[in-house]
């Protein structure tokens, strides 16, 4: 089980786990629950550069289509092909097997991210 307090979060309901200068990014269980059953995921290409706030992908569910935003500026060093092949992983294990992309980033660029307490407050305590 992932320690949710060790993650950083965005107002767009993404979580970020840092391992050195590599950030693993996914959507929160709150977002996955609001989306409903995820049926399609489009992710950026490995080796592409992304800028913080830029739309880098799409998540489609039985209820709606949502955009995936880059929470940080960096280079895509990995995508989770397993969720592209089986999007339901996002619902089943959003903090584990349902991760989406890995970015190589400058970690000093993370000051805008939320801690767990701030994210829970953002969601009205529902996260």
Explain this structure to me?
The protein has 127 residues and is an alpha+beta fold. It has a single domain, classed as Beta Barrel (OB fold (Dihydrolipoamide Acetyltransferase, E2P)). It has helices at residues 29-35, 81-85, 89-92, 116-122, and strands at residues 8-9, 14-19, 22-27, 38-42, 49-50, 55-61, 65-69, 74-79, 101-105. The strands form 2 sheets. The protein has a 6-stranded antiparallel sheet with strand order 1-2-3-9-8-5. β1 (8-9) and β2 (14-19) form a beta hairpin. The chain is globular and about 35 Å long.
Q: Topology, please?
A:
Layout: E1 8-9, E2 14-19, E3 22-27, H1 29-35, E4 38-42, E5 49-50, E6 55-61, E7 65-69, E8 74-79, H2 81-85, H3 89-92, E9 101-105, H4 116-122
Antiparallel strand pairs: 1-2, 2-3, 3-9, 4-6, 5-8, 6-7, 8-9
Subunit structure: The glycine cleavage system is composed of four proteins: P, T, L and H.
Function: The glycine cleavage system catalyzes the degradation of glycine. The H protein shuttles the methylamine group of glycine from the P protein to the T protein.
Organism: Microbacterium terregens
Total number of beta strands: 9
Mean pLDDT: 92
- Fraction of residues in β-strands: 25-35%
Q: What's the CATH architecture name? A: Beta Barrel
Please give the count of helices: 4
Dominant shape: globular
Structural class: alpha+beta
Q: How much helical structure, as a percent, in the residues? A: 10-25%
The biggest sheet, with number of strands, parallel, antiparallel or mixed sense and barrel status, is: 6 strands, antiparallel
The CATH topology corresponds to: OB fold (Dihydrolipoamide Acetyltransferase, E2P)
The CATH H-level superfamily is: RNA polymerase II/Efflux pump adaptor protein, barrel-sandwich hybrid domain
Order of helix and strand elements from N to C terminus: EEEHEEEEEHHEH
Ends apart, CA distance between termini: 16 Å
Organism: Microbacterium terregens
Pfam families: GCV_H
Keywords: Lipoyl
Subunit structure: The glycine cleavage system is composed of four proteins: P, T, L and H.
